[in-house]
Design brief:
Blueprint: H1 3-13, E1 16-22, E2 25-31, E3 41-48, E4 51-58, E5 69-75, H2 82-89, E6 101-105, H3 124-138, E7 141-151, H4 153-163, E8 173-177, E9 183-184, E10 206-211, E11 222-225, E12 228-230, H5 233-243, E13 253-257, E14 262-269, E15 272-281, H6 306-315
Parallel strand pairs: 5-6, 5-7, 7-8, 8-10, 10-15
Antiparallel strand pairs: 1-2, 2-3, 3-4, 4-6, 9-12, 11-12, 13-14, 14-15
Amino acid sequence: MPFHALLLTLFGFLATRIVCSTSGTSYQSILVPGSVTGGSTTEHIIHSNGKARHYLLHLPVQYDANQPAPLILSFHGNNHNAHYQESLSQFSDKSFNVNSIAVYPQGLNDSWESAPYAVADSRDFDFISALLDLLQSTYNIDVTRVYATGMSNGGGFVGALACNSKLSGRIAAFAPVSGAFYEQLGSTTPLVGPCEPNINRSSIPILEFHGQDDNIIKYNGQRNREGATIPTIPSWLEGWAVRNGCANGTNGHVENLHGGKVNKTSWSCNSHQNVVTGYKIAGWAHWWPTTERSDKTKDHLTVLNATTLIMDFFGKHALD
């Protein structure tokens, strides 16, 4: 066998690991065949607060190291993982995304800090902050176009990121899907503490999708779920409308779409169009809305595709 062919064969079976450190945070990259080209997904490890934290990184087909690229963080739900979220949300699919780097962080024990069942002292906010530092120092990322989306517990964590004073100053827009927005029992305060978005932002754009028939994170809320409260989705959206300066959060603009199967409520104020938007989908349960079959969605199909709408929403927002 020629020497170069032997090298390629060996490379196909063995991953090459590179260990580096920056700003006190160490990371380990697992290089796989094709990892240096656009259109590939690679696995990585970063050490944050003494814990090894994992994530998947997908470079888009049109990634050009000489051109700043948007970054999308996509968070998995409880009891799922980064690989599952990549397949479910489809931000690595070039038919949805050709320009943005997509990253799928992995939660400890497959969960995120914003939920009552999360690993104690997971310090997920520190993990995401360190991850953004690393990604922005490694790739040519447009720091004004960093976005967050996620499913269920991952969607709830996206809501928590929007409430975080530091990270809401680094992430331009937030799009939870079937979000589990846990609040302290009998309170409207998020489980992780008061909602205090970055004071330097003129707006915090929010887009949420929820099934009217969701029996896990119910659209009309739950007074006591695992020792915490789930707000009604309308009240959660209204809260964000008020935070964005809309004088009366109950006065959203309502549209009935797809023959009445979808109810869209949006708020525009202070020169920001549709700064908060919620989609309520009739006959839809706890799932990522899609019109496309995949190995994860299977026959769970509805009349709209959340990924398409999220990409459009992200494209309209950047940090001031």
